[in-house]
Design goal:
Keywords: Membrane, Transmembrane, Transmembrane helix. The chain has one domain. By secondary structure, the chain is mostly helical. It contains one helix and no strands. 82% of the residues lie in helices and 0% in strands.
Length: 39
Amino acid sequence: MFGGFPDWLDMLLLVLNWLLCSLFYFGVWKLVTRARARG
């Protein structure tokens, strides 16, 4: 445990990171398109 994470935990962290990034970019894209449609 001290020399690094197990493989499944590494994969879980990667998937969580990817999900957070995609959610963040999706939210930004929605905000931008909404603002562009309004103005």
